[in-house]
Amino acid sequence: MPFSRVPSTGAPEAASSPSNGGCDRWPMSQSPDVLTGKVALITGAARGIGAETAKALARRGVRLVLTDLDKEPLDEVVAAIGADDAVGVIADVCDLESMERAVAQGVERFGGIDLVLANAGIASYGSVLAVDPATFRRVVDVNINGVFHTVRAALPSVIDRKGYVLVVSSLAAFAPAPGMAAYDASKAGAEHFASALRLEVKHLGVDVGSAHMSWIDTPLVQDAKRDMSAFRELIASLPGPLKKTTDVESCVEAFVRGMEQRSRRVYVPKWVGQVQRLRTLLTTPLGESSTLKQAPRILPKMDEEVARLGRSTSARNVAAGNAESD
After folding, report:
1. In Å, what is the CA distance from 111 to each residue of 53, 155, 161, 207, 278?
2. Where is this region: Disordered (predicted)?
3. Is residue 204 one of the residues assigned to a domain?
4. Which stretches of the chain are assigned E, i.e. beta strand?
């Protein structure tokens, strides 16, 4: 049964950025919920954060334009929301024309795009010496060029409606991990893309934010844990809260609140914001000391496991070329 729409519950704000940083508010509406009646474009919407955020927005009265490469689960998300309020489009974020067609379908169906969640992302396994070069390039293509193509395609409509763009980056943008160079670099690039975009479109009435999450219990993280004991050991070796995995629901709540408040930053969990404020210390000898102690043991093991797997990314990515949700 499709979701029924419910008013905002005023849930707690613990997981999200504490401030809009001076961002504009949504225009006044007759509805008590500022999101009601908006149209959102979400990439990587077939599973994980993308799918659950789409469902949460639907309950707030948002209509959805959902893209992914994996048709069957995308169709299931659309069916769960209801065909009157969601359209699913098979589109590759690495192809600008594909994203332009997806946006055109959404605009034709719902009249325009108010919100963009550039969520599609993948990761690779293995050291710089061991990772498959084609997989490394694919990660960069999806995680950086995919964000550009998504935003470029939707931006004219977002400007017209003075909307909001949320680019999904990561804690990895400022806290890199060995064996994940492509992911670390691409998520740093996504953050800076969002920051540059904000400077370009603020005067046009468009707000831009970036989302930074620690480990979230998504298919991406689940696949890596399943594939490699070295990845599980890497997470377990991290200091303090960095080793914890957060549930998808907390991430979705923060994303929805970020879109409601047009936030400059969304942190999941909230402590990620504190890490961001210390980012200049993370790549000092002191900041790297804990990881440097573990890398000589864990990284060779990861590379051995990558060699045995015969791939440097999840089996789902290899099989489908899928831009899955973070």
Report:
1. 21, 14, 10, 20, 43
2. 1-29
3. yes
4. 39-42, 63-68, 86-90, 115-118, 164-168, 207-213, 265-268
Say if 326 falls within a structural domain. Answer: no
Could you tell me the residue range of the domain that residue 234 belongs to? Answer: 39-314
Using alpha carbons, select from 80, 5, 9 the residue that is nearest to residue 37: 5
pLDDT tens, position by position, 277-313: 999 998 899 989 989 999 999 999 999 999 999 999 9
Answer yes or no: is 86 within a domain: yes
Residue 189: what pLDDT? 98
Residue 21 placed within a domain: no
The pTM is what? 0.90
Residue found under tokens 């914001």: 273
- Which strand (E) or helix (H) includes residue 221? helix 219-227
The CATH number assigned to the domain holding 45 equals 3.40.50.720
Q: What six digits make up the tokens of 138?
A: 């694919």
Tally of domains within the chain: 1
Residue type, 153: A
Start-to-end Cα distance in the chain: 27
Which two structure tokens, joined as six digits, stand for 34?
């500022």
Whose CA is closest to 117, among 149, 147, 76? 147
Looking at the DSSP bridge assignments, the partners of residue 265 are 210
